[in-house]
Design goal:
By secondary structure, the protein is mainly beta. It has 1 helix and 22 strands. It folds into 2 domains: 97 residues, Tumour Suppressor Smad4; 89 residues, Tumour Suppressor Smad4 (Sandwich), CATH 2.60.200. The strands form 4 sheets. Strands 4-3-22-21-9-19-11-12-13-14 form a 10-stranded antiparallel sheet, with no helix packed on it. The longest helix is centred in the N-terminal third of the chain and has 6 residues.
Length: 260
């Protein structure tokens, strides 16, 4: 058997790699040519793939949360709000009185976060760019991209002390109710998260053994779902309408819905 041809060079750390390498084992960079299309690379691209609700009402079907699974909530054509004291009323202390608003524009359905203390999230299909400050949710955990930090230029002098090597470190923050930061991790790429395997292991029955991973592509952090059972969700921008497609899975507080 012939040995692999090392004719690829990582642009970040200059490591020599086999020609068929998909990522750099030294610094964790994921090569752009190997990325599958991003789910939410831009709002315009997402709008181009939308399905309209011409002459009909969309519905939210509860998958898990503070009511009986399978409960259906229609969204009338004039729109609706969701919260503890809204048109779609849920007994969930993590929601505001009217955390979320739904509206139709040109027969497309949009959701808007109206200041929900726990955020509004949409499930990703495969991969998405995760901007600094943006949160994602898996199981009952919310995590926030806290930025990239450069590691020390030299290994620490203490014998046996860990050193991440070249390449930036990812700061991840566990987000508590109300948005305060909890536990903080500083880790080199790639960062894998799961219930049984990964650089971050979470004790959560809704987290898969290998749930998701974060890779570095240039200066962008890529969040990838690894085929998890219950999904990986990204937070939508606050107070900005976000389009919803049929089949999208929406997370508000402790409630998870499917859009139909």
């Amino acid at each position: 058997m012939s040995s692999p041809l090392f004719d690829r060079v990582c642009e970040r750390c200059r490591a020599q790699l086999p020609s068929d390498a998909r990522s750099c084992p030294r610094c964790g960079s994921l090569f752009a040519s190997e990325l599958t299309p991003l789910v939410e690379s831009s709002l315009g691209a997402r709008l181009a793939r939308m399905e309209s609700f011409v002459g009909e009402e969309a519905r939210l079907v509860l998958l898990r949360g503070s009511a009986v699974p399978g409960t259906t909530f229609p969204i009338p054509r004039e729109g609706a709000t969701l919260g503890r004291a809204a048109a779609i009323r849920l007994a969930d202390e993590t929601l505001a009185s009217d955390s979320v608003a739904f509206e139709y524009r040109d027969d497309l359905l949009f959701v808007r976060d109206r200041g929900s203390p726990s955020g509004v999230f949409v499930r990703i299909l495969s991969q998405v760019v995760l901007e600094p400050g943006r949160c994602f949710a898996i199981g009952d955990h919310r995590l926030r991209h806290g930025g990239l930090l450069e590691p020390p230029s030299q290994p620490p002098p203490a014998l046996g002390a860990p050193w991440p090597g070249p390449g930036p470190l990812l700061r991840l923050e566990a987000v508590l109710f109300g948005g305060e930061a909890g536990r903080i991790w500083l880790l080199p790429f790639p960062v894998r998260i799961g219930r049984q395997q990964g650089e971050i292991v979470l004790s959560d029955r809704f987290v898969s053994a290998r749930h998701c991973a974060l890779h570095l592509d240039g200066e962008e952090v890529i969040l990838e779902d690894l085929g998890s059972t219950n999904g990986t969700f990204v937070e939508i921008p606050a107070d900005r309408p976000w389009p919803l497609r049929r089949g999208d899975t929406l997370r508000v507080g402790r409630n998870i819905f499917r859009v139909q």
